[in-house]
Amino acid sequence: MKGARVITYIALTGAQVVIQNFLDSGPWILLSLLPVMIMALDIRYSPVRVMSLAFLMAFAVDFFATGVPGLTIIPLVALAFAREMIIKLVFGSELFARKEDISEHKQGFAKVLTAIFIANLLFFTIFVWIEAAGARDFAFCVARVAGSVLVSTVAGIFAARLINSVEDAGWK
User: Can you tell me the distance from the alpha carbon of 47 to that of 69, in angstroms, rounded to the nearest whole number?
Assistant: First the structure.
């Protein structure tokens, strides 16, 4: 990552810590920018590099916000592992063949929105499943995942555009 983009990712990770510490949206909704941050990484990054970055970002959030080691790490690393599959499913494999970054301008808003939605769905399904650990009923967990995915998808659109506004970034 280039310098300005590294600062953007550090700032967004800090924003995620602030969101989880001070923006209590109740038991029904969680807000996370982390899935979009993983999806917006450079397409040329290897899965191991993406999973390593996911681990570092999630560790910072777990350490400074949730206080439960692994609560954010597990779903974010799982998302990083599935990132290539999501990109191939939504955008096709030609992005990897051309080494082309994901771009709202080139691929269209609908495809970018779909990728953000799928990333959030995977992340929050795993997150709520781990957090509930059998203590919450199924209907509550489904409602929490649905609310969190909707809110975080909307926030993710703005986060993706912020990441894109950094010089030399993808998701244009």
Answer: 22
H-assigned helices in 23-137: 34-39, 47-61, 73-91, 94-98, 104-107, 109-132
Judged against a pLDDT cut of 90, whether residue 1 lies above it is answered with: no
Cβ-contact 152, 31 below 8 angstroms: yes
Length, in residues, of the chain: 172
* Dihedral sign for Cα atoms in the order 135, 24, 6, 125: positive
Residue-range definition of the domain harbouring residue 85: 3-165
List pLDDT tens digits, range 42-63: 888 999 999 999 999 999 999 9
Q: How many other C-beta atoms can be found within 10 angstroms of the C-beta atom of residue 154?
A: 14
Output the pTM of the full model. Answer: 0.91
Q: What is the CATH number of the domain that holds 73?
A: 1.10.1760
49 domain residue, yes or no: yes
Label residue 98 exposed, middle or buried (CB < 10 Å: 0-12, 13-18, 19+). exposed
* 172 within domain boundaries: no
